[in-house]
Design brief:
By secondary structure, the chain is of the alpha+beta class. Helices cover about 35% and strands about 25% of the residues. A four-stranded mixed beta sheet has the order 2-1-3-4, with helices on one face.
Length: about 90
């Protein structure tokens, strides 16, 4: 994609198998697309629990755009990343 590293946030919680799966998928995607990922445990903040609750895991940009949630598809995440972060057409 050529624009440097993409910063993402993975919202989840401990002992969540979907969150573990989402983290694994993000790691796989990061092999092809330069990503940094900050993991945030929503249980550390009541506002995050209210916002994301049962939607976790949620992968979002630093700007707050949700790229994926729940059962995360590697193919769909790659597609969303390409769409959101691709340079504008000339």
């Amino acid at each position: 994609m050529g624009r440097g590293v993409i910063d993402l946030i993975l919202f989840g919680r401990a002992d969540c198998c979907l969150c573990d799966s989402g983290e694994w998928i993000v790691a796989r995607v990061a092999r092809r697309i330069p990503l940094t990922v900050e993991k945030v445990d929503i249980d550390s903040d009541p506002d995050l629990v209210a916002k994301y609750g049962e939607r976790i895991p949620v992968i979002a940009t630093r700007a707050g755009e949700v790229l994926a949630e729940g059962r995360i598809s590697e193919r769909e995440l790659k597609r969303r990343l390409s769409k959101v972060f691709s340079p504008p057409s000339s």
